[in-house]
């Protein structure tokens, strides 16, 4: 009879964790395992099991799980506790609408303050995206490109909300980019965004962002439709 492998066994720990770093180390380890699929959708994460794995008390585990829940990577389910959230929820289209409002505002605040170094960071991300074939790295590079354009916005709470949306998109891209078939198209969008940003054309940049995010909406719609067909 086959033995079910414990998903937590895929997480490597490197000895005792200093108390002041426990929460961040646990959060980062679990985030990476969720994003790369080692902790699949529906996996229940028990506080006691995680505390034993990392050799810490339950307090930093609880704090890490709360952070991951706020990022949309976990959700609390009755009788199961914290479980890994699905790649795409039914409200994902609403999330994209909200993302546009937030990211457009970030562009308004950040774009006039961006430096040549910021533009180079964004350009380097595009160059790496053009050559990258690892979908895990593609998801990360996509997030870093957008963050480079928003980085100078002085509203830190706004940037935190945007990061949550980008992390959610990163997770989706890692698992679905190949099926979406929009890799090269995305780079055309990114280059257009960067071109308007360098020209300090805020409204042109926002228009490109809207078109870029609409492609994400279209991909999400196709994904949700395919999932509904599988359930018929």
Automatic annotation (TrEMBL):
Give GO terms: molecular function aspect only: DNA binding; DNA-binding transcription factor activity
Q: Which domain of life is it from?
A: Bacteria
Keyword list (alphabetical) reads:
DNA-binding, Transcription, Transcription regulation
Q: Which InterPro entries match?
A: GntR_C, TF_FadR/GntR_C, Tscrpt_reg_HTH_GntR, WH-like_DNA-bd_sf, WH_DNA-bd_sf
Question: Record keywords: Thylakoid included?
Answer: no
Domain spans labelled HTH gntR-type: 20-87
Listed name of the protein: GntR family transcriptional regulator
